[in-house]
Protein 1
Amino acid sequence: MQPADITNTLRFGYKFQFEDGKEKEFSVLLDSRTLHALSPPYPSPPEWTKLGFQQCENCPLASTHERCPVAMNLAHLVEEFKYSTSYDKTWVVVEGPERTYAQETSVQNGLASIMGIFMVTSGCPILDHLRPMVRFHLPFATALESVYRTVSMYLVGQLFRMKHGEQPDWTLEKLNELYREIGRVNKGLWNRLSKASAFDANVNAVIVLNTFGDALRFSLKKGLDDLAPLFGADDRA
């Protein structure tokens, strides 16, 4: 791939630093307008990237697609960490467009953070719905932060739907449905990566991401009562 035009490119740099002095560095390059991943071609993609390999049960892609776009976007990352253990300690430094983040954490949490970017910018028709969140990527987010960011993104999207003459979903009913489908994608990806990795870091990173989805659905079920006090809302039954 030709070098990306930096004026039209959004970059997130991830550096994993380990206790033995080793480092792993990754650059996530995105088209700044579409937020689509600008991934270089993978010369010899592994078998587990084929669309039919542990394909998600709700995959909307036709059999004419040879490779799963999420798997292809994750392939180089998964290969780098296929011998890593989830709870290995690492210092992760993330350089974003506006600021730098750093945290001592586990490999699975660091991987979940960068995997989240690759997954929603890959071209998967289901995960595509989360792509706007990448522009304001928040590494190492807590479950509550993820709920707030997701609901905020969704409501902004509904505002634009209304402006375009479409029916908005102010009740968040379709957001709950979307995350049900995302959970099925995560399950499929978990099955796929469990066959691609000798150790558990990659697989458990997907579980971390799915946990955030479960937290959102639980929060929606409870009427977002975990966020209500922030707005001075009366949270009495």
Protein 2
Amino acid sequence: MNAFWNQYQQNQVNQAPPEQILIMLYDAAIRHTVRAIEGLANQDIVAKAEGISKAMHIITTFSDTLDHQIGGEVAENLDALYNYMVRELSAANLHNDPAPLKNVETMLRDLRVTWTEAIEIYQKQQAEKRSAKVSSNAAQGYANFLP
């Protein structure tokens, strides 16, 4: 069953548009951070370490894929935030402190909401552009039939 689930998940990722993959990665980072919090609460060192490690890997990937040429100040701010999250995860791991983990979870959830809203706005703008282009093309086509 696990092999089928893994294949299903792989297909979902392979067929997803980039913006959906971004949200999926935020979901995974949140899930791993929560796992680390629960592991710490249950004194499950393996769950804590794996959760922190996987969340850190995703957040580091976010940072590594920022395009500072295009993103400018936004990319710089996100980079600083991602680096802060990595430091918080490291501190939580070193001191077995849930507070930095909860802080990172909150930041990840807030960023996920922000990205979701930005994606929805972008998709709406793109749909409006396509609709306007279709309307313009239709009007031009109908103009050919006018006297």
Protein 3
Amino acid sequence: MNFTEKIKSEILSKPLKEKHCRKAFIAGLIRGSGVLYEKDGELGLEFKAPDEQTAMALTNSFKLLFDYDIREVSVVEDRTHKKDKFLLSISGNKAVEILTELEVLTEVDGEVAVNLNFYGALTEKECCLRAFIRGLFVSSGLCTLPTENGNSSTGYHLEIYFSSYVTALETSNKLAEYNVITKIVGRRGGYIVYIKSVEEIKDFIAFLPAPVSVLALTELMINREMKNISNRQKNCDLGNVNKQIEASAKQISAIDKIESTIGIESLKKELAEVALARKENPEETLNELAERLSLGKSCLNHRLRKIVAIANEL
């Protein structure tokens, strides 16, 4: 189960208690991927559910809230995502009444028309607005996270798809009122409201709310940060080791030059002692060598630099 499915499963596993919130949630589901049609003079709506759990949630909600049985359910192949989707269809006078109550349809001059305004009386309460956007995300949202090895091309990414720029902008503005900052881009013949910042993604999921998913995302963020810190430490350690190897090689080369020309015994006693210790222990770090000679690190380093300087003058 990917992270999108985990969020949606969490949302669907905790049905909303208040009737007005449940209506807003259904309205969001329908707005996200519903398509109106007319057949034999009757207005109807087809809704493509991303999975069986969503299809069951919608069917049960229509029965409980409106005493309407959705009998037309079929399985359709989604070649893009390589998995089946469930197509639900409602029609008839009762369906028109329900869709009007859900503010999907409206009456203009005695004629039934599509209500282009997503955010009306149904979403005036904050709890209902959250429920509506939960529905939008379940039906047309997705969230991807970087893979553990960091090879994901998308990184952190959350989006909701809209067929209209106006509704995408309305949703983006509504989320901004709750400090969830999004961007909009045209894609796949429509528009997506999207987030790339992991902190903003976490804020969006908390807004829904889906607390279990928030915790899962937080845990992932912490693990990735710890891994990054560990990698930086390893890189730093490796860099230090390389520097130590280079310094040791330079010191030994200088000692060999002194030994082959003027002889180590020509050095002052304290320098000769250091030269012999370094030559005999080329693999030791500065700290290890200083401890062996019972010297301070700075004192040892000063003497080694003096030896290199003497060699450079020969």
Protein 4
Amino acid sequence: MNVVLTPDGPLDPSATLSRYRIWGEDPVNRLSGDVFRRVARWKDRLVPYEVRWQGSVDDPKLLVRVVGARTSAATDAVLSEVRQLFGLDFDLPGFYRLAKADPALAGLIEPLYGLRPTLSPTAIEMLVGAITAQQLNLAFAFTLRARLVKRYGECVCIGGDDVYTFPEPAVLARVRVASLRGMQFSTAKAVAIRGVAQAMLDGGIDPAAFVTAGNAEIIASLTALRGIGRWTADWYMARCLGRGDVCPAGDLAVRKAFHHYYGRGRAFSEDGIRRRAAAWGAYQTLAVHYLLAGMRLSKPTAGGGT
């Protein structure tokens, strides 16, 4: 089944999806030239799909091909993922209007025009990815994540590419700590990954309830788990739920970006960053995304962020 999506506002698909290749291999999100491939889960089925794009940044079209979908519900599940992965629900025109009043952000609009944050379609994928990236450069974090996916995910061939599903919580909850240690995960990360997976099975983490929960409630629920701190909870809200009013001020790369663009010779505290970001209101996630991307303009493989 083929479907065309027309974004509301500008979109640079290649720049938006670049995070799936600049730090290394991502077996779950395959980006090959001008085609993106992934496998969605719908009920107990795997639904492979691919996305191509055409048109200009100001008038883009996403061409979605769903492989083997026999129901409209399965296609709808894929389209929901595509909207998340391409950040289509972010108000980019509104952000640009706000950014023009901020000297740092205003200077990033032109070189990053059409860039949108990608969202993780699943909670387990986001949380395990964030745990993996704690206190590591992103290149090595991507290496660890790829090992985990290839060992415990399911492989589907789409258009000649081997694309893997991210391992389900039921699978990761059973993985031995020693097996993860053998992949070079630290003991702390291995225990945290198993704990998150188990919490999703027994209801300690309820992604469906998080959709309507307040930020404070989500932070409290996630940080109650071993290995999950405020940094991870913030990124979960920003990059899984797509909430605009979030600033992961505890992230080292975010702190470096604020120091670079706004420091004027002084370092920001975590509380200071949150106060500064609060002025952006519902556009905090977009502002942080642009500041981090701006830091990478001269250093494409710099670590940090998620």
